[in-house]
Amino acid sequence: MSHRPTSAAPHLRRLVELLAAGAPADELGAVAAEARRAGVDARDLAEVEGATEAALRVRNTLRQHRRRETELTALFDTAGDLAALRDLDAVLRSIVRRARMLLGTDTAYLTLADEEAGDTYMRVTDGSVSELFQNLRLQLGEGLGGLVAQTARPYASPDYRTDGRFLHTGSIDAGVLDEGLVAILGVPLLLGSGSGGQVIGALFAADRTPRTFAPEEVALLCSLADHAAIAIDTARTMADARLALAELAEANAVIREHSAAMQRAAESHDRLTDLVLRGGDVSDVAAAVAGLLKGEVAVHDGAGWPLTSTGEHGGGGTDGREHPAGAEETTAVEGAARAEKAAGAEETAGAEKAAGVETAGAEEAAALVAAAESSRATAHAVFRDGRWVCAVLAGQELLGCLVLYGRPELDDPDRRLFERSSVVTSLLLLLRRSVAETENRVRGDLITDLLTAPDRDPAGLVARGRRLGIDLDRPHFLLVARAGDAARERLADAAVQYLFGCGGVSAVHEGAAVLLLPCDGTGPGTAARAAAGQLGRLAGVPVTVAGAGPAAGPRAIADAHAEGVRCLRAMHVLGRDGGGACAAELGFVGVLLGDDHDVDGFVAATLGPLLEYDAQRGTQLVRTLRAYFGCGGSLTRAKEELHVHVNTVVQRLDRIHALLGPGWNTPEQTLELQLALRLQLLSGG
Fold it and tell me: Alpha carbon of 93 to those of 96, 100, 311, 492: distances in Å?
């Protein structure tokens, strides 16, 4: 029986099936062996073996195509990431991760150049476990990465630790050893092409076992590096674009703000100019500025005292003479004068309180003057004690200052608006002062005629006064003020400023400044003290002021002037220069100097607290004091005259001490008390 050879067809079909299933190369190679064992004849066996070789080539081609497809997919995905670039770090991490996946390495990483430091640093890693490696910095030319950055060429090492082509350093070798890397492939990140390309970093793939990287792997990593370079360049361009847009937006905002500020400045200038042209006053300017700056504005004179205010700050009126102490100051100063005469414990306490108010007002004025001087020195508004202060100048003369409250933060446009307002204020103050000086010179002639010839034509003097806005038939205080001869002109100017806006008038007569001002419900002593303080500040020297009145009519005014001159002379003799007083406040000297010789007023001012205490409680303090003085200050003789125990005398004297004050038994006070006791006894008291 003959043996027929096995057909090759089944084996060829088997090859096709394995190829279609993507079987490994060893299964494809086993088909030819199976055909040989099956007894396929030599010619068919050769066909099977040829088909097997062709199948293996097809398998390799398909494998390369699949790999290339995977690589292209990765590159397309990377390109998609670049197209939707939002976060540079995320894109770089994705590229490094894909490099590690496609090349099948244990780790991949990316370094960037540091232009300021002149080296490269680790930016992104994937698969790294060593903190030392992740923080490596490589100088140009050091290690594989430094050489890639320096030469702009890819380099691969199957075993870096033994590769002598690279400059090994202790820090780099330590990092590589700590990470456990052996085979390393590095390619440059290039911006541009050719010799003009700029290396901005490098992309690496590395294994922890020896490995030779194929050319196609190098090409793939170069493609990914190109994408990374594009991502970095795009991110930088976008960052520059965003910065440029931000700067442009900021510039536009500045331009809009400047335009708005210019428009606002023009509007405010027109508004203030219109105020001046319509005859507005300083108070109108203050109100306008307060409205423009959304704050409270006060105007103060050169001595720091308020001229006007739009709110609770400033505390003054609009006539230039109402100072922070206000009405409290005038009544309190009068109380202080009575307290000097020991008018009782309650009046003394009131005087002390008023003195505190007056002192606080003076300190506030001094602080404002200091701030205004600083503003004048810097030519800008200054911020002091929670408020803005701007000097009001006429050349180098300090006319006063503008004060803005309620705006701790003041931007440049508002600050310039505030400063420009001071110029308008200075114009108004100069205009007011010029008008006042002119009017005062005309009115001063009237004062001179009043004092030299009051009886020549009384009706004519009254008529002249009315034409000048002065009603001589109204009660007036007459003040006589004197300073040193060197300050006489300054005192005359200070008098004009002091009376500015109050309806008063001043003149220089016989070397002294004479001020005639309407009565304000206080007294001549109070008016004299207020004028002494203000005139002294305005003139810059101590000024002594004597007050007289109230007086109405030419003759009474002339008599008041004579009394004021006598009082001024007495104040100098008594050593009271630099203060203010009236004749009635000079004790018995005032009684002798005064035209009315007010004995009862002197007794009441000197013994008033004791008389009132005796009247209310039925005590005998006045009788005890008379006996004490009559016995030469002897307690024993006084108690015998009064028929009481010596302790009773002591207790009564303690009460007298409490009512009259600690200075009651000084020689000067003792003299006035004994004179008052004698006059009281003579009058039947």
Answer: 5, 11, 65, 88
What is the per-residue pLDDT for 182?
94
> Chunked in runs of 10, what are the mean pLDDT values of the chain (685 residues)?
62 77 76 78 78 77 66 63 66 84 91 86 92 89 87 92 90 93 93 73 93 88 83 80 87 79 70 72 82 87 79 51 36 33 38 48 83 89 90 84 88 83 81 68 76 85 83 91 84 83 81 88 89 88 91 89 84 81 71 52 75 86 84 84 86 86 78 72 57
Going by C-beta distance under 8 Å and a sequence separation of 6 or more, which residues neighbour residue 503? 469, 470, 517, 518
Report CA Rg, the chain: 54
Please state whether beta strands 387-394 and 580-582 pair in parallel, antiparallel, or not at all (unpaired).
Answer: unpaired
In whole angstroms, what is the distance from residue 598 CA to residue 588 CA? 10
Amino acid at 613: Y
pLDDT at position 477? 93
Omega before residue 550 within 30° of 0, cis = yes
Give backbone dihedrals phi and psi of 85, rounded to 5 degrees, phi first: -60, 120
Amino acid letter, residue 435 = V
DSSP state of 142: B
In the prediction, which pLDDT does 597 show? 52
pLDDT of residue 192: 72
Q: Report CA torsion sign: 384, 389, 394, 400.
A: negative
Question: For residues 265 and 420, is the Cβ–Cβ distance under 8 A?
Answer: yes
Say what the pLDDT of residue 354 is. 43
Contacts with 13 (C-beta within 8 Å, 6 or more apart), sequence order: none
Strands 580-582, 544-551: pairing is parallel
Q: What is the structure's pLDDT at 528?
A: 93
Q: Which residues contact 622 (CB under 8 A, 6 or more apart)?
A: 607, 610, 611, 614, 677, 680, 685
Longest dimension (CA), the chain: 187
In contact, 398 and 416? CB cutoff 8 Å: no
Whole-structure pTM over 0.70, yes or no?
no
Cα of first residue to Cα of last residue in the chain, in angstroms, is: 183
Report the distance separating Cα 333 and Cα 632, nearest Å. Answer: 35
CB atoms within 10 A of CB 9: 12
Cβ neighbour number for residue 140 with a 10 Å cutoff: 16
Q: How many Cβ atoms from other residues are within 10 Å of residue 479's Cβ? A: 34
DSSP-derived 3-state class of residue 202: strand
Within 10 A of 420 (CB to CB), how many other CB atoms are there? 16
Amino acid in position 412 = D
Report how far residue 448's alpha carbon sits from residue 445's, in angstroms, rounded to the nearest whole number: 5
Q: What gap in Å lies between CA 430 and CA 426, rounded to an integer?
A: 6
In whole angstroms, give the CA distance from residue 387 to residue 266: 25
631: Cβ contacts below 8 Å, ≥ 6 apart: 637, 638, 641
What pLDDT does residue 5 have? 57
**Torsional class of 81: left (φ above 0), alpha (ψ -120 to 50), beta (otherwise):** alpha
List CB contacts of 210: < 8 A, sequence separation 6 or more.
158, 159, 182, 183
Tell me which amino acid residue 196 is: G
Give the pLDDT of residue 544. Answer: 93
3-state DSSP of 250-309: HHHHHHHHHHHHHHHHHHHHHHHHHHHHCCCCHHHHHHHHHHHHCCEEEEEECCCCEEEE
Q: Which residues pair with 188 in a beta bridge?
A: 202
What is the rounded CA–CA span in Å between residue 550 and residue 461?
18
Contacts of 346 (CB under 8 A, 6+ apart): none
Q: What angle, rounded to 10 degrees, do the helices at 88-103 and 215-277 form?
A: 180
Closest to 591 (Cα-Cα) out of 606, 580, 605, 602: 602
